[in-house]
Design a protein that fits this description.
Strand order of the largest sheet: 1-2
Radius of gyration: 16 Å
Largest sheet: 2 strands, antiparallel
Strand content: under 5%
Helix content: over 70%
Number of strands: 2
Order of helices and strands: HHEEH
Structural class: mainly alpha
Distance between the termini: 45 Å
Number of domains: 1
């Protein structure tokens, strides 16, 4: 499950790279969707369970969610930059 979360983050990094390289907004949107989905998925990975078998939040969950939220801001700001350029023309 952790591997899938890291793979989703790497896919988001790749989409962000393509957005900057090609100046295309759809790659920014795809990266934002991947990072937001990864926030929910990273928080649901059961690293720690209690006596009842329910998953509890651990430091690893917070790190995965925080990294995804942090790197989600980069394509979001780039998307706003591209939108400003469209309205300026």
């Amino acid at each position: 499950m952790t591997f899938l979360s890291v793979f989703m983050m790497c896919s988001g990094f790749g989409a962000t790279y393509l957005a900057f390289k090609r100046e295309a907004f759809i790659w920014d949107v795809m990266a934002i969707v991947l990072f937001v989905a990864n926030v929910g998925y990273g928080g649901s990975i059961p690293f720690v369970t209690n006596e009842a078998g329910l998953s509890m939040g651990s430091t690893a969950n917070h790190v995965l969610m925080g990294i995804s939220l942090l790197f989600m801001m980069i394509p979001l700001m780039h998307l706003l930059y591209l939108a400003r350029g469209i309205w300026k023309r």
